Amino acid sequence: MSSPSEATLQVLRRLRARRISLKLSVIDLAKTVGLTAGQIYKLEAGRHPLTVEQLLRLSKALFLPPQSFFAPMDEASEEVLATYFAMPSNYQSLLLEHMKRIATELGES
Question: Are 62 and 19 spatial neighbours (Cβ–Cβ below 8 Å)?
Fold first, then answer.
């Protein structure tokens, strides 16, 4: 398999970010969409091609319209996602909780 395009990687990053934001495990998502956990891991890592049918099932399971994965994203947002996914999972969890606290505080002011 050839390396995925940057557009494909963007879609895959968004899929993973959405799964994590919903606190869905790879296993739970896989069961919901009729794939194996290994297939989900490979999809998110860009090591397995993403079909249109899979994208439709994934978007439904993640409660987002498919087109939301293709919307333009500014450079800063892409950098935040890339940095987040480069972190070990324990740091990702800490950062996510911190961001939620900040969002809550901003919403209360």
Answer: yes
